[in-house]
Amino acid sequence: MVIAGANRMLGRAAASQTQTPPPTSAICVARRSRVALVAMVIAAAGSGGPGRAELQPSQPPSDSGRMKSSLTPLGPPVSRDRVIASFPKWYTPEACLQLREHFHGQVSAACQRRNTGTVGLKLSKVVVVGDLYVGKTSLIHRFCKNVFDRDYKATIGVDFEIERFEIAGIPYSLQIWDTAGQEKFKCIASAYYRGAQVIITAFDLTDVQTLEHTRQWLEDALRENEAGSCFVFLVGTKKDLLSGAACQQAEAEAVHLAKEMQAEYWSVSAKTGENVKAFFSRVAALAFEQSMLQDLEKRSSARLQVGDGDLIRMEGSPPETQESKRPSGLGCC
Ligand SMILES: Nc1nc2c(ncn2[C@@H]2O[C@H](COP(=O)(O)OP(=O)(O)O)[C@@H](O)[C@H]2O)c(=O)[nH]1
Ligand SMILES: [Mg+2]
Predict the structure, then answer these.
(1) Neighbours of 108 (CB within 10 A)
(2) Burial of 225 by CB count in 10 Å (0-12 exposed, 13-18 middle, 19+ buried)?
(3) Which residues of 70-80 are buried (b: 16+ CB within 10 A; e: fewer)?
(4) Sign of CA dihedral 50, 285, 259, 133
(5) Where does the record place the region Disordered (predicted)?
(6) 236 touches ligand 1 (CB under 6 Å)
(7) Strand order across the beta sheet in which 264-267 lies
(8) Residues lining ligand 2 (ion), CB within 5 A?
(9) In the structure, what pLDDT confidence band is assigned to residue 39 with cuts at 50, 70 and 90?
């Protein structure tokens, strides 16, 4: 699957190089493809751990209407509507992953000091699962391309989009994976799920059966990931088709299930765009915050290890006894 995606990206990038001079739209496609291709190749090579690939340098163009991130030495600048300055709010407090309305204190402080390690260079993998026709591809397209195509063809091959954000002043990217029409046969390869930091389980608000199937989709996706390592969202699509009591009823059932799944619930419409940007901003902010906290913890435990004195011993010094060891919590350079 990865190879198929990489080949398609290679094809697109190669095609754009043969045009002289390329039209502006082709330049945009080529830039997007280059970032995606580099990420894909690195991910395929297995660097950076599960679901996270480090971006490599590419040319910074100067598109009008785009903002330059203060910390983005790599890739093109982030577009204005991908800049997240304050912590995005939940859809409903009844089924949400985080009730705080601000970034975690440690994360805010680290961002202000620009002490963000390698977080700004990483991609978080997001997978979108759910029955065929519930509107997964439409949702991704509305967010990434701001289009809604009534007759969108079934996805062929593996498809993913890379969306770049600037969160609390720090660059951050999501790699959003769409299924390739295999949901028809329930044979999505485990590589599709593996290393996901976020699982989005989608259902059609007008079709209660698709809601019932989300349990199975989630189970399949979680099986390929470490317990407790993923954020789970339950998303009701096609909100434009329901209103009033019918909408409330469908949402109430979904919220009930979301609580059981320990998922955050959202209702969206790819057709009107309602809640789509707010939803993905929330996904990006939660994933970013988690990455930051993990990175801070990793760096602080690495510092403690060096400070412990376990790693450096002077030649000729007596062997350390168990009693002489300081508690690791006190170790400090
Ligand atoms: N009214 C309405 N139709 C939608 C919406 N999202 C998707 N659809 C339609 O639902 C059908 C299936 O959408 P698609 O994105 O291909 O579903 P997928 O198989 O889950 O990727 C298409 O005909 C879409 O136009 C929505 O928000 N509102
Ligand atoms: Mg699709």
Answers:
(1) 15
(2) buried
(3) eebebbbbbee
(4) negative
(5) 47-76, 311-333
(6) no
(7) 83-84, 159-167, 170-178, 123-129, 198-204, 231-237, 264-267
(8) 137, 155
(9) very low
Q: CB of 257 within 8 A of CB of 211?
A: yes
Which ligand is closest to the CA of 142, given by its number?
A: 1
pTM: predicted TM-score of the whole model, two decimal places = 0.73
CATH match for 80-302 among 3.40.50.300, 3.40.50.10860, 3.40.630.30, 3.40.720.10? 3.40.50.300
Ligand 1 pocket member 32 (CB < 6 A):
no
Q: What confidence score (pLDDT) does residue 55 get?
A: 40
**Domain spans, the chain:** 1-15+27-54, 80-302
SS3 label, residue 311:
coil
**pLDDT number for residue 75:** 65
The stretch 84-108 carries a mean pLDDT of: 94
| Nearest atom in ligand 1 to 269's CA | 27
Ligand 1 contact, 142 CB (< 6 A): no
Which numbered ligand comes closest to the C-alpha of 135?
1
Res. 21 pLDDT band, cuts 50 70 90: very low
Residue 55 or 93, more confident: 93
For residue 41 the two structure tokens come to 């190749």
- 254 and 234 Cβ atoms separated by less than 8 Å: yes
From atom 19 of ligand 1, which residue's Cα is the shortest distance away? 133
